[in-house]
């Protein structure tokens, strides 16, 4: 990932989650996971269902329910944003 793209996603994460470092990290992780899934799938990008399943798998092990829900939402948002950016749609 180029330094510019990494800076862009960090700035977006700060804009979306100005007070939550763990949520920003989940957003960035969602972005990175979507990018990784895209590398492995040359024909189609992950669907909303794929992203939702990955988020559920990652954050279902968290014992703090409130944090898990917020991080799961941030992860999904980051992953879907990246997928849409790859598709050339709205960001």
Labels describing this entry:
91 residues; 4 helices; mainly alpha
Structural commentary:
The structure is a single chain. The protein has one domain (3-87). Helix content is 76%, strand content 0%. The protein contains four helices and no strands. It has helices at residues 3-16, 21-40, 48-59, 65-87. The longest helix has 23 residues, at 65-87. It is flat.
Q: How many discrete structural domains? A: 1
- Gyration radius from CA atoms, angstroms: 13 Å
Uncertain residue ranges: none
How much of the sequence lies in strands comes to under 5%
**Which bin fits the share of residues in helices?**
over 70%
Q: What is the rounded distance between the termini?
A: 18 Å
Order of helices and strands: HHHH
The largest sheet is: none
Structural shape: flat
The number of helical elements comes to 4
Q: What quaternary form is this?
A: single chain
């Amino acid at each position: 990932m180029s330094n510019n793209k990494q800076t862009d996603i960090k700035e977006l994460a700060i804009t979306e989650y100005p007070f939550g470092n763990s949520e920003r990290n989940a957003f960035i992780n969602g972005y990175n996971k979507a990018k990784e899934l895209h590398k492995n799938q040359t024909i189609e990008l992950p669907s909303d269902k794929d992203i939702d399943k990955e988020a559920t798998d990652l954050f279902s092990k968290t014992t703090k329910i409130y944090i898990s829900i917020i991080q799961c939402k941030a992860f999904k948002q980051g992953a879907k944003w990246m997928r849409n950016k790859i598709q050339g749609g709205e960001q």
